[in-house]
């Protein structure tokens, strides 16, 4: 199973989602590859934001080796599931993917926590450290829900 997490810059939210879900999947011995990308391409090649790195590290998750890349249409061929962090990201994903967009594969990440609500993970980019902590907790809870659903399916 290959999963892609997508936000705008691929430096704040989706690197956390990648790191946290990969960590939990490994703990459950699930054969999952979790990666991430951004739709705006502004930060290509950069490491995750230092506050995302810091909060992840405080929680035992290492995201410092990730590098930002831009989401591309062919990601719909490479991944089984594409989670988007917010409505503006979904709009971009549809635009970039064009004919490759697959409604079966793409979903709002937070729908795994609050089904069908299409909620946004708030963008912590302009804020302070408390925003990153809040986003970490929300992403962590949602990753727990994704893993719990998978474990129930397996048993
Ligand atoms: P992210 O946050 O989408 O969670 O990585 C952002 C980072 C950078 C920008 C926007 C959002 N930016 O416009 O540079």
The number of domains is 1
Anisotropy-based shape:
globular
CATH architecture: 3-Layer(aba) Sandwich
**What small molecules does the structure contain?**
4-nitrophenyl phosphate
Quick overview:
The chain is of the alpha/beta class and 155 residues long. Helices cover 42% and strands 12% of the residues.
Would you give an account of this structure?
This protein is of the alpha/beta class and 155 residues long. It has one domain (2-154): Response regulator (Rossmann fold, 3-Layer(aba) Sandwich). Helix content is 42%, strand content 12%. The protein contains 5 helices and 4 strands; from the N terminus they run βαβααβαβα. It has helices at residues 13-27, 50-58, 75-78, 87-97, 129-154, and strands at residues 2-7, 33-38, 81-84, 106-108. A 4-stranded parallel sheet has the order 2-1-3-4. Helix 1 packs parallel to helix 5 and helix 2 packs across helix 5. It is globular and about 40 Å long. The two termini are 18 Å apart. The relative contact order is 0.21.
Blueprint (SSEs and pairs):
Layout: E1 2-7, H1 13-27, E2 33-38, H2 50-58, H3 75-78, E3 81-84, H4 87-97, E4 106-108, H5 129-154
Parallel strand pairs: 1-2, 1-3, 3-4
This protein binds 4-nitrophenyl phosphate.
């Amino acid at each position: 199973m290959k999963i892609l997490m997508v936000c705008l810059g691929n430096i704040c939210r989706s690197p956390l989602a990648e790191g946290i879900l990969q960590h939990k999947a490994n703990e459950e011995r699930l054969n999952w590859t979790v990666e991430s990308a951004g739709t705006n391409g502004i930060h290509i090649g950069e490491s995750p934001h230092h506050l995302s790195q810091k909060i992840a590290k405080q929680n035992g998750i290492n995201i410092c080796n990730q590098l930002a890349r831009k989401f591309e249409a062919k990601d719909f061929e490479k991944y089984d599931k594409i989670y988007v962090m917010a409505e503006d990201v979904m709009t971009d994903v549809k635009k970039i993917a064009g004919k490759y967009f697959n409604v079966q594969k793409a979903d709002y990440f937070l729908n795994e926590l609050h089904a069908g609500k299409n909620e946004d993970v708030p963008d912590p980019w302009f804020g302070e450290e408390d925003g990153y902590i809040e986003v970490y907790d929300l992403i962590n809870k949602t990753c727990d829900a994704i893993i719990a659903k998978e474990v129930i399916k397996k048993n």
